[in-house]
Specification:
- The complex is a heterodimer.
- Chain A has no helices and eleven strands.
- By secondary structure, chain A is mainly beta.
- In chain A, 39% of the residues are buried.
- By secondary structure, chain B is mostly beta strands.
- The N and C termini of chain B lie far apart (36 Å).
- In chain B, 35% of the residues are buried.
- The chains are: A mainly beta, B mainly beta.
Chain lengths: 117, 107
């Protein structure tokens, strides 16, 4: 079955760190760019970061310098290391695979990150 | 960054109605515009890519059009399962952006 499954969310204090994981199955993971997209409670979708199949990465300005995306093609997994977390980072975080035309064609169910003291 | 503005922000309609949602880009994005449907507590689902191409498995009552800065998503005859939030997304720039969403509610 083609699917993405996120894990690693939870409650963290402001200034803390968290690492999210996204396990892929059912497709040739190394051939696809992957992204993280988040959604704050009651808000719209916000793209966070993208990594190509070979490891090139880009970030939204809101997380540049604090978040790091990486991937392990041997494990079919993409990661998001989140440091210096802020209250405004509270959101459901989704991983998504990207087509060659840069739309998000497969989504995971998401993992919730809450930044609060 | 490229800004996407959807209108309306919310919409009430009845089963069987024809509905159109608009997405306007702050600069020309050719046809690099995609549409997603999201139901409460669920992940988004791709409906339309490249402004007008229907994703596999999506009912043909959904259609998209437009190019440049102005785009539309049309549902030809609303079904009960179509009540959801719809968001556009541009893939012209590598700093991908989404519209703020349009919530489609039952009248």
């Amino acid at each position: 079955e083609v699917q993405l499954v996120e894990s690693g969310g939870g409650l963290v204090q402001p200034g803390g760190s968290l690492r999210l994981s996204c396990a892929a199955s059912g497709f040739t993971f190394s051939s696809y760019a992957m992204s993280w997209v988040r959604q704050a409670p009651g808000k719209g979708l916000e793209w966070v970061s993208r990594i190509s199949g070979s490891g090139d990465s880009t970030y939204a300005d809101s997380v540049q310098g604090r978040f790091t995306i990486s991937r392990d093609n041997s494990k079919n997994t993409v990661y998001l290391q989140m440091n210096s977390l802020r209250a405004e980072d509270t959101a459901a975080y989704y991983c998504a695979s990207m087509s060659t035309s840069w739309y998000f064609d497969l989504w995971g169910r998401g993992t919730l990150v809450t930044v609060s003291s | 960054d490229i800004q996407l503005t959807q209108s309306p922000s919310s919409l009430s309609a009845s089963v069987g109605d024809r509905v159109t949602i608009t997405c306007r880009a702050s600069q020309s994005i050719s046809n690099y515009l995609n549409w997603y449907q999201q139901k409460p507590g669920k992940a988004p689902k791709l409906l339309i890519y490249g402004a007008s191409s229907l994703q596999s498995g999506v009912p043909s009552r959904f259609s998209g059009s437009g190019s440049g800065t102005d785009f539309t998503l049309t549902i030809s005859s609303l079904q009960p399962e179509d009540f959801a939030t719809y968001s556009c997304q541009q893939s012209y720039s590598t700093f991908y952006t989404f519209g703020q969403g349009t919530k489609l509610e039952i009248k």
